[in-house]
Design brief:
The chain is α+β, with helices and mostly antiparallel strands. It has a single domain, classed as Haem-degrading domain (Beta-Lactamase, 2-Layer Sandwich), CATH 3.30.450. This is Heme-binding protein. InterPro entries: GlcG_carb_metab_protein (IPR052517), PduO/GlcC-like (IPR005624), PduO/GlcC-like_sf (IPR038084).
C-alpha cells in the first residue's frame, strides 16, 4: 500500500502569506487583519495592525474558517446563502459561525486543502484581492 505525502502549511508559509497580504493592502492604502488557519481549523498565525478596526480580527478569522470548512473562496459563496441559494439553510452550529463575505480563501498544496487565509478590514472585494495575492507567494 502506497501513501501519498504532501507538505502541510507551516508557520513560515503562514508568515509569508500574512506579509504578502499586508503588503498588498498597504500598497492600496488599506489597514487589514490577516488570519491563517491550518487544515484542522487551528490558528496558525494572525496579525492585526494597531490602526485596524478591532472587529477586523474576528472578521478575518471567520472568513478563513468559512473558506476552510467549505473549501471555496468566500467571494464565490455570497450568492449561495441568499434566499433560494444552495446554502440558504446551512446550519451555523459549527465551532464558530460561518461568514459569507469576500476575503477568505482556501490554501491548497499538491491538490490538497492545507489551510485557509482570511483578510478583514477593507472592502470585501479588496480583502479578496489581498488574500488571493497572498497565495501567489506560496508558488
Amino acid at each position: 500500500m502506497s501513501t501519498t505525502t504532501f507538505a502541510p502549511l507551516t508557520i513560515e508559509d503562514a508568515e509569508l502569506l500574512i506579509a504578502t497580504a499586508r503588503r498588498a493592502a498597504e500598497d492600496a492604502g488599506v489597514t487589514v487583519s490577516v488570519t491563517v488557519l491550518d487544515a484542522g481549523g487551528h490558528l496558525l498565525a494572525f496579525r492585526r495592525d494597531d490602526r485596524a478596526v478591532l472587529i477586523s480580527g474576528e472578521t478575518s478569522t471567520r472568513k478563513a474558517y468559512t473558506a476552510l470548512q467549505l473549501n471555496a473562496p468566500t467571494a464565490d459563496l455570497v450568492d449561495a446563502v441568499q434566499p433560494g441559494g444552495l446554502f440558504h439553510t446551512l446550519p451555523t452550529a459549527l465551532d464558530r459561525p460561518l461568514l459569507f463575505i469576500a476575503g477568505g480563501v482556501p490554501v491548497h498544496r499538491d491538490g490538497r486543502l492545507i489551510g485557509a487565509i482570511g483578510v478583514g478590514g477593507g472592502a470585501p472585494e479588496q480583502d479578496h484581492g489581498f488574500a488571493t495575492e497572498a497565495l501567489t507567494a506560496l508558488v
